[in-house]
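Journal club prep, notes for RB
We'll compare a predicted complex against what the paper describes. Inputs for the magnesium ion case:
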Amino acid sequence: MGKDLYDSVVSKIALITPMFAKAIVDMGLEKLGANPYEVTPSQMRIIINEEVLPKLKKFIRNDETLETIGGGKISFDSNGKIISLNTSAKKFLLLKGKDLSDDNKIYQVLDEMGLKEIVDSVLNQEQEVTVKEVELEESKVRLNVIAGSLKDNQNKILGATLFIQDITLKSAIELEVDQVYKRIESQNKELLIAKNQITVAKEFSDNIINSMIDSLIIVNPEGIIEKVNKATLNLLGYREDEIIGKHIEIVFRVTQKEEKSDFLLFASSLLGKEKIKELNINRFINNFEINYFSKIGDIIPMMLSISVIKGNNGNIVLMAKDMSEIKHAEQEIQQNYDIQYVLNTLLKLQVENVSLNKILEKTLDSILDIPWLSFESKGAIFITEEPSILVMKAQKNVGEPICLACSKINFGKCLCGLAALKKEIQFTDCLDERHTTRYENMVKHGHYCVPITFMDKVLGVINIYIKAGSSRNVEAERFLNSIANVLASIINRKYMEQEKEKLQAQFLQIEKMAAVGQLAGGVAHEINNPMGVILGFAQSVVKNIKEGDLLYMPLKSIEREAVRCKNLINDLLVFSRKEKSKVELVNINIVIDGTISLIEAQAKLKKVEIIKKYSEGLPMIMVNSNQIQQVIVNLCNNAMDAMPKGGEIKISSNIEIDNRYINYIIIRISDTGEGIPNEIKSKIFEPYFTTKEVGKGTGLGLSLSYEIIQKHNGTIEVESPAFASATTPLADNKATEGKEIGKGTTFIIKLPVGVDNYEN
Amino acid sequence: MKTKAKILVIDDEQGIRDLFKFLLEPLGYQVFAACDGLEGIEMVKKSEFDIIFLDVHMPKMQGPEVLKIIKEMKPTHVVIIFSSSSDPNHLFESKAKELGAYTCIYKPMDVNEILDIINKALENPH
Ligand SMILES: Nc1ncnc2c1ncn2[C@@H]1O[C@H](COP(=O)(O)OP(=O)(O)OP(=O)(O)O)[C@@H](O)[C@H]1O
Ligand SMILES: [Mg+2]
């Protein structure tokens, strides 16, 4: 080791010139550009030869110099007798505290100090040079004594010389240097170990930091990013050189307000003063939620902890966990919960026997209530009606123009129509070419139009408004689809219930009719004879009486009432189960035409115009034409009664195919009368139900018609639009505005074609 | 047109028999009445009638049977009286005609209808 070499050289030289030894060696080192620690033996050799020895020669040659630098010198002759003794030597010897009055005394001191023997050793030629260190205990002085022989040219010993050096200081210095050196050495060692440890620790922590899944960002107190780990780079999408040296604001996408870039100021505007107070007190804050922004502007929810590193640089560590996954999972749970909640609500409503329209309204409410779907709070639900029309049954906030424009939408028209036609969701973020419905001052918007399908049949469409430019959201579609599915089954069940109720009602009606029929059959028979007599006599008498006669009017009345009775009895008999009827294959248009000729005269009288709209090429149908005529007459009579001030009767014939591929002849008889209020709609087919004044109506017309159509395996239904279900928003408005003139009533008769299933 | 035409009414209903007499006698017809099928058949055996009105629904012997017997004896015009309750859709009408009935009327009948039938029948004597 360089230092050992240096030290040994210096100590040797110091024997000759203790004051300058170090200086001489150091000068040599300097010339070579070496240092005491790293000096090599070859360097030292150069230093000794070129620097140290020439200088030392000077010192040795010049005795005075030695003298001046405090060396003691005692010269002896070959016999060991003292020849000379310089003052320094005397001083050293005096230190022993002895009296040096005579040579004997000096010899004594020299002996005590152990110096006589070294002089002897050189005189005896035992040693060329002998060196000895002497410690003067009393005065704590250390002496370095060198004994050397003086020889003549023939190598004969002439005498000896003792050089005495005070090395107390030198030793002390050496000791000191030694200790310092040792200290430094040990410190160096520690430092080295520490340095190693630091390197290892640094590598280790770098590894850890880089293998961390969480983001770690170290910023200086000014908020400048000093270090980031790989996770941060991956998370935010920066290259290291793109982010290091930037202000931390780029991570939060918040521009600091203060001119001076100070992290805490920045953070306090970001996190709030309270948090910063906490950070100042505890030097860390834990786990609060905040968003990081990636390079491309994605929002990443993070769980952030901040700690301030101790030490004068005061760096700040931002450690943050990517919460996207957790957030996503949380969101999914929330979404599933919301979906389930809405579905449960709907199912509960269904069980509670709430009307379909109410369910639709509630559905819409719940859809629009869910915040994470970010729908506009606007939408409608349509229900399919025959043949292929979507009718708005529930709406929220859509406003008057849309209520009007979209109250009825044909399949294929606009987005809702397309959803129904294609049976797939229609999404748009703008008013594109599919959005064919337009009205004045229409605000830009987008839609989700979701078909409600059951067994491949479109039962309706859910229409939701979204902000223009919104992007298509898978979660939203998933949600709307599940709602649509549940709605589909609810609607289907409602339909089935309605069908069931209808069937039950029909069944009840049939039962009633049968009872009436049986009764009527029996009674009618008994009544015919007396009625025949009454009618016959009345008519016979009237024939013989002139119009002016007092009895003319009463007899005429008896006759008229008897005729009514007769008609009534005939009507009653239709109910009779025992009745046999005549069925034949007819063209229904001819049957209708024949009937119209019966009532035309009466219609003219009542200012009622009869409009015929027959479809050509209808198939022949097996009916009892008398009975069908009776039905048409009944319906036309009712229509005329409903239009006391005149109006129109429209009679049309059509063909329709239902989903079981059965052809039906449809006869529609519409009037422009006052319509039928909802509350009596269910009663009009009951026998004896009438709203007409006593003597005018018997209330049998419709019940008979019903019975007849029933026997033909057909159906008869009534529609009265003015009193249409008061649930659609449009109908609501109309209802409050009052009855709409000309809406009237339509009776629809459906007769199956091609099945000879007339009841016999 | 025969003026003093002879008309027979076979009906178990007193009122109907009286009605025919009341209606037709003032018009110059000779009206005879029988209150059941057997009595009617007896009367047809004894004398000639231009038109016979025969109720289909009677005790002792039913109308179609009476019609058959009468038709075997005389070619008289027989008008069958149905009750609208027993044949509301006039299904028996053709059957009756097959058996030789001239035509059918339905209770409760319109007197004008009776008069029409008599007029027409007398125009085409058997
Ligand atoms: N076209 C119609 N417009 C308005 N109300 C009608 C119409 N048709 C039937 N109604 C109502 O239905 C009731 C029942 O009709 P229905 O034909 O059975 O009996 P009616 O007409 O009162 O008596 P009837 O036909 O026996 O003379 C009527 O009293 C009337 O209130
Ligand atoms: Mg009526």
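Talking point for the session: Chain A has 24 helices and 23 strands.
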